[in-house]
Structures are given as C-alpha cells and as structure tokens.
Amino acid sequence: MGSEPSTSGAGAAEALAHFLREHAPLFVLTGAGCSTDSGIPDYRDRDGNWKRAEPIRYQRFVRDPSARRRYWARSYVGWPRVAAAQPNATHHALGALEARGFVVQIVTQNVDGLHQRGGARRVLDLHGRLDLVDCLDCGVRLGRERMQDLLAAHNPGCAPVAPEQSAPDGDVLLGDAVQTGFKVPDCPRCGGMLKPAVVFFGESVPRPRVALALEQLARARALLVVGSSLTVFSGYRFCRQAAEAGQPIALLNWGRTRADDLAALKLDAACGPTLTAALALLEGRPRSLAGMGAC
Fold it and tell me: Alpha-carbon distance 199 to 189, whole Å?
C-alpha cells in the first residue's frame, strides 16, 4: 500500500480532515512527537536515530545497583520538568476529536499523562505512567511525589533542579560525583526494589494491555499515528495488525516512520497545527495555518 505524502501546511490539514471524515471512528497511536511542544523532547531525529544515549534497559536496572542509582539520581532531578509540562495543541485537538466521535481509542507510547490532562478520556498508556512507582517485590504503588519525598529524605544535599534539557522519561545528565553518592530508598512497606510504573527498554508490555489495545483497534475503521517513528515494535505492531485487517493507515509525523510503506496517507508535518486545522475544517471553522511547517 503506497503512501501519498502531503508536506504543505494546508494540504496536510485538508488531507487529514478528509481521512477523518471518510474513516471515523479511528484508533489513534501517539508517540513522543506529541509532547515536544510541551517542553518534553523526543528520543529520535527525523531519520529515526537516537538523539542521545539509549535509555536504561530493564535488565540493567534490576541487576546493577550502580545503574539503578544513576537512574534514580537523574530521574529525581529531571522529574520536576516533566511534572510541570502542560498539554499542547496536539493533546487538545485529539481530545476534541474524541469528544466529537472521530476517535474510538487513543493508545499512547508516552508516559507523561498529557493526553488525559488535555481532555481525552479513552486513553490507554501502553508504556505505563511516570507519575507512579511500583515495588517489584510486594506490588505496592506509590505516587511519584511520594517517591520524590523519599529520594529527598535520603539525599538532603541533592536539589531536584533540572537543567534545560532532559529526555522524555525525565532523564537528565548529571556529574559522576552526584550519581555515585546518591542513595536509593527501598519500598517503605517491604524493603523491596522500587521502579517507575513504566515499561523500560528490554521489558515487555503486559499482555492484557496489548490485548485490550488490539481489541480497540478492531473496533475502529482506520488507524492514525501521531508523532511516532514506530521504531519500537510495541507501537509498530498496531500498524501491522491494521494492514493485515485492511484498515487504512494515516501517519502524521516529522520524518520517516517504520510504517511508511503500509500507509495510505503520510503527512510530514507539524502535529499540533495540522490536527488543529483539520479539526477546524471538520467543524466548518476558519483555520489558521500559522506554524504549519514540518515539526
């Protein structure tokens, strides 16, 4: 199935509005590109290459105390920036499209919770939530602010003041001295190992969560991908499933994606302005094309 690229601002919005009219209700899969306008950077460039070091892998986190110490030190300092992020035009537009019946389900690869805060209700956090922390031993779940308090109590000399740049999971670069001396608290209930309630690289998405997402995909007439290169299989699997089921696929992403050859429509354009302008077209409102270039 060959894609039909449309890279101009007006052309992208019109093509997306037409796709929505013809194929609603849609299953929407979102990635890190949705949150860049909220000040949370994405992982990869437009060619799908890492912009920085690969995030920590699950096996290293659970097996290597020094790696776990580095993770929590960097996450402790980086969390306030993620917590302060606000929903942007992409989140608000998708929430509005859901409310108007164009979207049956949003499945996000992001862990920032911004879709819910942007007004969407049918959201499945495929990779979990960074604002929650789980004990791997007893299963108790803590709010992230509670974890920040524990980290602060164990490290009174380390202030959680984030530098200008961080990763989508809140990871920031810190000096070796801070990381080496950082103390990681144990579970306050059982003394076990605490881990963010997110799916790390090298860790599998829980099967019930995948099954629920696939069930929702089957209810939709088409798939729309927003802000994801689909490099990771956990997201790409939905494109493969949709293609096998004969469901049309539209891609709205800056740069190439792993599913370009499966798409009926490929839009190399900015997520927020394109979705906002498409929504205006669907509602018969005048649209603004400001900022409608590539993401």
Answer: 23
Q: For the chain, how far is it from start to end, CA to CA, in angstroms?
A: 25
Q: What gap in Å lies between CA 6 and CA 45, rounded to an integer?
A: 20
Say how far apart CA 263 and CA 67 lie, in whole Å: 39
Per residue in 272-293, pLDDT (tens digit) is 999 999 999 999 876 554 444 4
| Cα 230 from Cα 232, distance rounded (Å) | 5
Active site residues: 127
Per the CB < 8 A criterion, the answer to whether 36 and 42 are in contact is: yes
Are the beta carbons of 32 and 290 closer than 8 angstroms?
Answer: no
Lookup: tokens for 19: 């796709």
Give dist(CA 125, CA 49) in Å, integer: 24
**Long-range CB contacts for residues 55-60, cutoff 8 Å, separation at least 24:** 55/167, 55/169, 55/171, 55/200, 55/201, 56/171, 56/200, 56/201, 57/200, 57/201, 57/202, 57/203, 58/200, 58/201, 58/202, 58/203, 59/202
Per the CB < 8 A criterion, the answer to whether 217 and 235 are in contact is: no
- Return d(Cα 295, Cα 255) in angstroms, integer: 9
What is the per-residue pLDDT across 91-135, written as a single tens digit (0 to 9) for each? 999 999 999 999 999 999 999 999 999 999 999 999 999 999 999
Distance of alpha carbon 12 from alpha carbon 294, whole angstroms: 10
pTM summary value: 0.88
Using a pLDDT cut of 70, give the percent of the chain over it: 83
